[in-house]
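Throughout our pipeline, every protein is held as a single compact record rather than as scattered files. This encoding replaces a full spatial description with a residue-level series of whole-number codes. The remainder of this section carries one protein's record, kept here as part of the documentation.
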Amino acid sequence: MMRLTLTDLAEVVGGVLLDPADGRRAVDHVTIDSRTVRANSLFVALPGAHSDGHDHIAAAAAAGAGGYLCRVGYHAGPRGGVAVDDPADALRGLGAWVRATVDPTVVAVTGSSGKTTTKDLIAAAVGAGRRVVANPGSYNNELGVPLTCCLLEPGAQVLVAELGARGLGHISQMAQIVRPDIGVVTNIGVAHLEMFGDVDTVAQAKSELVAALPTDGVAVLNADDARVAAMAGLAACRILTFGTGPDADLRAVDVRLDSAARPTFRVGDVQVRLPLPGAHNVGNALAAMAAADACGVDLAAAALALSDASVSPWRMELSTTAGGVTVLNDAYNANPASMAAALETLAAMTAPGRRFGVLGQMAELGADAGAAHREIGRRAAALGLDGLVVVGELAAAVAEGARQAGLPAEAVAVVADADEAIVTVVGWLTAGDAVLVKASRSVGLERVAAALHTPASTPRVAGQAS
């Protein structure tokens, strides 16, 4: 963030210096986590689920914070305080001010699945021709979005911001902060139904991004998704579509997968090769190329950048253990569409051995949870997986669906947690096998993927005595 004195900060957020003598102190970095404070940080004290940020102000100051935002009435802290009515509102106001002051082109991305991967790919593609700032990880909520804006510094040309939603109106509120110029909608699917109720309401929430675009903006829409394509009717700006069908403005043709299920395809005369496995990532890459095109970046340069793109952790991470097992770690989150895509990716890989899934529950599906989990089990069996370890009470329906679809009972294990999953799957694996690890964030299955890379988890070679 650009350097601000506390006097200027107080003016921006409508706050009051606790000590006017601190007005010349300066901050150039914003955090809501006292553990990430560095010299000249601004620590924003927020109430949390387990603790109040005001209890950590002293620790932030000791770590070098140049100042902090606190609620009115807080007077027990060290020097550098700026009191506001609501620190969260002040953070949002600060983010909006930084965005307006630096004034980059803003690319915002939303959708039911693939948002973070698409955000990462957009940052890579646009970065081929522009100076880009993008949100780290999944900073996609009412706190993460203004924190992302606060990463901007003078000279930044493009901000890439991921926008999530847990209800109607959320994206509209975040759009008021980032004021997007280009809006990308990846897809609409069965996700967060516990909050939204049905898929049509999910689509309504995501469409708020399109409605927020200015008349000189660009709506980048997935032509292969009927609900997304229909959002064109809400746009008062240019429409740019992507997909595999003949009506898409940016169309992928000649799609092929290599032995690790990594796609190659062509857009016009531009050849694209992705480092990420999964045919579903073709759509994510097309969205990134469309966003780059809307930013004026040459498509060939964008494609070259995509060939070396990296994405946030635990999203289709492909690795091989010392014992020769291929691990597909997609453990960050899961919904029915992303789970199906991950299973199809595993099935498309030409591993010499067997294929296994370690699958946990998909959260926030409401009344559809049981049916959705059973369908994933049926899909796994139909794709020819050799075994499943399913984790958690809700995920037991995955086992039920798999058995109904013909996977032998002895090839399906239902376990309570990640630790039990590790023990079970390690006992199954031999060199040459491949395993997918995927679940909703709360299940913590990244521990399974990590454990497979430890010496104690090195599988025996097929035929070796145990």
